[in-house]
Amino acid sequence: ARKIGVLTSGGDAPGMNAAVRAVVRYGLSKGCDVYAVYEGYQGLVDGGKCIRKMDWKSVRGWLSIGGTTIGTARCMPFKTREGRLQAAENLVKEGISSLIVCGGDGSLTGADVFRSEWGGLIDELKQNERITPEEADTYQHLTIVGLVGSIDNDMSSTDITIGAITSLHRICESVDSINTTALSHSRAFVIEVMGRHCGWLALMAGIATGADFVFIPERPPAGDDWETAMCEVAHRHREMGKRKTVIIVAEGAIDRSLNPIKAKHIKNILTDRLGLDTRVTTLGHTQRGGSPAAFDRILATTQGVEAVDAVLRSSPDTPSPLIGISSNKVTSGPLMKAVELTHEVAKAISEKNFARAMELRDPQFAE
Ligand code: ATP
């Protein structure tokens, strides 16, 4: 039977468990043996107990559990060739030569690096007699399939990533809670949400909760004097009888000179210039937690199934696929192309080409 490994890597995202469950059960139904690699790439490097054969019951009840039960980690050794050599040895010893990786762009880049190096790693392991010549012959190729698990929705070539909808919903619930107290005391709140490089959560939360102003990395506020522009908006809304002011700021928000815009600074501006009683709330890790929304369970399940199919139809000479979703259809496209496009956003921002950054992220919001 074909042996497939599945792992989760990078920041946890609600729905990762549903993805693992789908890979395990659909893989089994297709006659494969499925192994969960615990603790992300660290588990690949450590091997042993971290690589566990799964059966139908292993993933029972996982649809509704947040986070990732097989664990995730940031793994420095996997960024080194030595670490990846050890990982390759562990995989060969387990007889696994197909990996489904659910993570962000860093994790998927790592997976593709691993695959492109694989031939060389196998040769080296054979030369050092860490694997037999027969094993080297049997495991000449590594198949990689990527699933995007990220609350940030920061990957190109796919409309939405696993976990983003749940996280957005958590943020909306928190902002709703803040709204009631803000209204009661006629206060202003500056709410910091996750998104170091991507403003999707902040922007969508702003739309979904009717925030007064939103700060995101891809599209800094226009003009040199965003402080005055923001105060004018907040003041105008107050003049119209609004009893609360809510500003949503992404962790990675910047101005047009690429200087960070921090929640504390926004608070001071609102306090000093408008005399508003202003508080800062950093939503923090509540944004990652809890049970996945129905959409993330469905997205992870349909994409997990597609990932197994992608393994089964893979060939050594086609690029590693990334499973995405576009216009409600599950898609499969070149993984590294998606990663490169994602990196282009960061490049556009660093070159202050904000129109390009928004265009790459979502043409719908480019204007
Ligand atoms: P998030 O969106 O949550 O940041 P991510 O997958 O981008 O998720 P990273 O911390 O960038 O998170 O990567 C996770 C792990 O993937 C790293 O700790 C490392 O083990 C591996 N990895 C990342 N980049 C590479 C690379 N270029 N080569 C090899 N391994 C890598």
From TrEMBL:
Cellular compartment(s): Cytoplasm
Subunit structure, interactors included: Homotetramer.
Protein name: ATP-dependent 6-phosphofructokinase
Domain Phosphofructokinase: 3-311
Residues of the full protein shown: 162 to 528 of 931
Organism of provenance: Circinella minor
Residues annotated for ATP binding in this entry: G11, R74, C75, G104, D105, G106, S107
Record region (N-terminal catalytic PFK domain 1): 1-367
Family of this protein: Belongs to the phosphofructokinase type A (PFKA) family. ATP-dependent PFK group I subfamily. Eukaryotic two domain clade "E" sub-subfamily.
Active site: D152
Ligand binding (Mg(2+)): D105
